[in-house]
């Protein structure tokens, strides 16, 4: 990775029910990219709310990733 690139670290905080996505740079520095609340535990994994949560989480990572944007031609 060059100095302007980064990977992602996904952290799940069970106490606050938050998913945090951090950018992790080659020097080990972390930068909070975004955080979002986990869906309710009673949510149906096949339901539309769950699918929307998963879609948004994936989009956040893919659209923020320099490597993914290159691979996808974005």
Write the layout of secondary structure elements.
Layout (H helix, E strand, L loop, with lengths): L6 E7 L4 E7 L5 E8 L10 H17 L1 H6 L3
Antiparallel strand pairs: 1-2, 2-3
Structural class: alpha+beta
SSE arrangement, N to C: EEEHH
Distance between the termini: 18 Å
Stretches where pLDDT is under 50 for at least 5 consecutive residues are none
| Rg result | 14 Å
The count of domains is: 1
Side-by-side strand order of the widest sheet? 1-2-3
Largest sheet: 3 strands, antiparallel
Beta fraction of the residues? Answer: 25-35%
Shape: flat
DSSP helix fraction: 25-40%
State mean pLDDT (0 to 100 scale): 86
Describe the structure.
The protein has helices spanning 48-64, 66-71; strands at residues 7-13, 18-24, 30-37. It is α+β, with helices and mostly antiparallel strands and 74 residues long. A 3-stranded antiparallel sheet has the order 1-2-3, with no helix packed on it. A hairpin with a 4-residue loop joins strand 1 and strand 2. The radius of gyration is 14 Å and the shape is flat. The two termini are 18 Å apart.
Features:
single chain; flat; alpha+beta; 74 residues
Short description, anyone?
This protein is α+β, with helices and mostly antiparallel strands. Helices cover 31% and strands 30% of the residues.
């Amino acid at each position: 990775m060059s100095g302007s690139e980064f990977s992602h670290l996904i952290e799940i905080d069970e106490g606050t029910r938050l998913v945090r996505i951090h950018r992790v740079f080659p020097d080990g520095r972390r930068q909070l990219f975004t955080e979002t609340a986990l869906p309710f535990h009673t949510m149906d994994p096949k339901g539309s709310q769950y699918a929307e949560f998963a879609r948004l989480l994936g989009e956040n990572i893919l659209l923020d990733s320099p490597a993914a944007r290159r691979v996808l031609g974005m």
